Amino acid sequence: MVEIPKAMVVEQIRSRSGAEKASEADKELPDKLDADNDAGLLQKYGISPDELRQQFGGGSPSVG
Q1: Source organism's superkingdom (predicted)?
Q2: Angstrom distance (rounded) from CA 33 to CA 31
Q3: Residue 42 domain-assigned?
């Protein structure tokens, strides 16, 4: 299981689709996303679960 903080995903959405989509995603997405369980939500915003897994090396990113 790869858990990704919502803020990281929202920033990706903002850079790809703009502030309006990012704001919509921020309201809809859970605080922590699971690349597998939340695949449908991620794809709705143009984010590939596989891409997230690769980006975070299969582990949860640390937020400092």
Answers
A1: Bacteria
A2: 7
A3: yes
